[in-house]
Amino acid sequence: MAQRGLENGTMETGDSRKSEWVRLNVGGTTFLTTRTTLGRDQKSFLYRLVQEAADLNTDKDTDGAFLIDRDPSYFGPVLNFLRHGKLVMNKDLAEEGVLEEAEFYNITDLIKVVKERIVERDAKQNQTFMKNVYRVMQCSGQELTQMVSTIPDGWKFEQLLNIGSHYNYGTEDHAEFLFIVSKECPTVLNGSDESSDRAKVLQLKGTRI
């Protein structure tokens, strides 16, 4: 039976399949994988690369590895996804970078997975939590009754502090007080949360006066 030499130096018979192992030189970094792995998505560029290399006129390096001008750090997650169907990536890599590579190689399932992770990540970063906002108002003894009766909706009374009187001869009615109320407000995690209530005399977050 006739035999012929392959570019990588191995021999195959006329009716045998090509070598299962494939070398890829991605941005100067060499990856060793199999045709089976690269062929998981038959619509992808990588499948076409190993099936139709001659038609694609793909260049190879001196070791016979297919040359691909892409970022090797983001190719790792792409290759691992083809190997076991899960997206595994280092914390210092951005999902958007993996998405860019997935779209370049046209790996449909990976594109879907990365987009879902980006949505989950953004939702987590924008989650809200409740905080206590305190409002402190100064009033006289004569104004206390009115102050209590006009507490805005959503605010609750916290504390009343007697800060003395400005009058040496003053009665109880001339005493000055700090009237403290609080309210629970949502705040965005990792986002800005500047209060719109410009009338606050004092605002403390999470602590009491």
UniProtKB/TrEMBL annotation:
What GO biological process terms does the UniProt entry carry, in alphabetical order? proteasome-mediated ubiquitin-dependent protein catabolic process; protein homooligomerization
The record ties this protein, via Gene3D superfamilies, to:
3.30.70.2000, 6.10.140.750, Potassium Channel Kv1.1, Chain A
Q: Could you name the domain of life of the organism this protein comes from?
A: Eukaryota
Question: What GO molecular-function term can you cite, just one?
Answer: cullin family protein binding
Indicate the segments forming the BTB domain, all copies: 20-122
Q: Which InterPro entries match?
A: BTB/POZ_dom (IPR000210), SKP1/BTB/POZ_sf (IPR011333), T1-type_BTB (IPR003131)
Give the GO cellular component terms, alphabetically.
Cul3-RING ubiquitin ligase complex; cytoplasm
UniProt xrefs under SUPFAM superfamilies: POZ domain (SSF54695)
What's the name of the protein?
BTB domain-containing protein
Organism equals Elysia chlorotica
What's the source species' lineage?
A: Eukaryota, Metazoa, Spiralia, Lophotrochozoa, Mollusca
